[in-house]
């Protein structure tokens, strides 16, 4: 009877998902179902994954998830890592909790996982995983419903999940005040027993400035055990500096529950921060999702809100402009491009010219050619011998220091095939059309196919409208970005620009950030989005530029200082940079 009601609820949820699939952000297409703990009954797994499929998502389930037996710890760690690094998977959703995650933590190569800012969702035993992620600064941890608990959703918890995942405005909730005071901070926490394990083993993230949520199931864990663990966490200094502590859902009943309620009230008075109880999070049917990167505020009277930052709540793609270069590694070289991917960038922007000799060469413009190599030719006139022998380490401009600063290392002008060869399967190359020709598009497409890449790995951009229009007409499968420099005087007509984009079939409108100051308004950018175009910026190279990107609501930008951009975004606030 219980299974029947579960399947009926899953069927109802599937029908609801069919009409509203925004459980996850728009860039999530494939969900990896993983487990580092116990196996999940096959019917429960089928019920939960079927709901996700009905919502329009592809599901990739790791082989250890449903057993028949629990895999050894090293196998669980290996499969978790494979799922994380799988370029087809956009988000990891745990199948269930149980027991066993503690055996896996030390077997995971967390530095290896740092290559992808993977979103990971789970709670219960998975408290160990998401809080270790937080402590190590790896990935994007969420604590909340898993595959096994999604079939128990009610309308409120499903709406909450989708809104939280998509960064939307949350409905306020009321909690009980145990120790008065207002609080605000990023959340952390989870199952009391698992948090205790992290604390006593020196693995827990710092609670300083965070709102700590604690919950516990009644199975196996008596009130005495819960009380003992919470006191040890306090006495060990693991709650010190917390913005607040919130006792969420505890599944105990009868006298055990009365004992815990009494304890929470007394315990609250021993802490130096506000304390609350009754938040619907944990093993309860309507459990809420917590995003460890989204700030929560609690008023003195117990109203819990998740305020939107000033201006838009934005995820922005940080695109490494011409690779990752400096005084030792010149821009637009194979070495700079490979370095960008190796250091975590998913998107890299480069420039390509088609020469009279028929080669597709990667270099920005004649200015860079001259200052880097001393060659005074136009790029279109470069011969194969020039491309093979010119040394990009010979100039003295930024990004091309004198040869002695590179210990004599030689850097050549790359060809298109050489650049495509270093693009990883999960990576994206944004190729800017510079020197165009009638053969450009065909040569480019053939090279992409030869490299074993697809249109998912390529974005084509250009400030040359007619060239980009021609490319798009020939190969509409590729995403296209129109790069624009706005006039400083005389204004511009955003409607005219939108119309040009639509007429050519472009996907993205991308003005130069330096040219938008005092020229482009948020209303202009909103008009671009309303027309169904993505809005990005090129040339975001300072904290001030990041602020401008936030004001305009850009979803991505090219940047010369890829690592620095994360510091600027954090300083500005209200922005999550995507690698």
Highlighted features:
ten-stranded mixed β-sheet; elongated; disordered N terminus; alpha/beta; 25 strands; single chain
What do these coordinates show?
This protein is of the alpha/beta class. 35% of the residues lie in helices and 19% in strands. The strands form 4 sheets. Strands 16, 17, 18, 19, 20, 21, 22, 23, 24 and 25 form a 10-stranded mixed β-sheet that branches. The longest helix is centred in the first third of the chain and has 18 residues. It is elongated, with a radius of gyration of 27 Å.
Determine the strand fraction and express it as a percent band.
Answer: 15-25%
End-to-end distance, in Å? 47 Å
What composes the largest sheet?
A: 10 strands, mixed
DSSP, total strands: 25
* Global outline: elongated
Report the C-alpha radius of gyration, rounded.
27 Å
Helix-residue proportion: 25-40%
Mean pLDDT: 88
- Low-pLDDT ranges: 1-21, 396-405
User: With helices defined by DSSP (H or I, 4 residues minimum), what is the helix count?
Assistant: 21
Helix/strand/pairing class, anyone? alpha/beta
Question: What is the structure about, briefly put?
Answer:
This protein is an alpha/beta fold.
Sequence-ordered SSE layout with sheet pairings:
Blueprint: H1 2-19, E1 30-34, H2 42-54, E2 58-61, H3 73-85, E3 91-94, H4 110-113, E4 119-121, H5 127-136, E5 140-143, H6 147-150, H7 155-165, E6 173-174, E7 176-179, E8 183-185, E9 187-191, H8 192-200, E10 211-216, H9 223-235, E11 244-250, H10 254-268, E12 275-277, E13 290-291, E14 296-298, E15 303-305, E16 314-321, H11 334-342, E17 347-354, E18 360-362, H12 366-373, H13 384-389, H14 416-420, E19 428-435, H15 440-450, E20 458-462, H16 465-474, E21 479-484, H17 494-504, E22 508-511, H18 513-516, H19 522-530, E23 534-535, H20 543-552, E24 556-559, H21 562-572, E25 575-578
Parallel strand pairs: 1-2, 1-3, 3-4, 4-5, 9-10, 10-11, 11-12, 16-17, 16-24, 16-25, 17-19, 19-20, 20-21, 21-22, 22-23
Antiparallel strand pairs: 5-13, 6-15, 7-12, 8-14, 14-15, 17-18
Helix pairs in contact: 1-2, 5-8, 8-9, 9-10
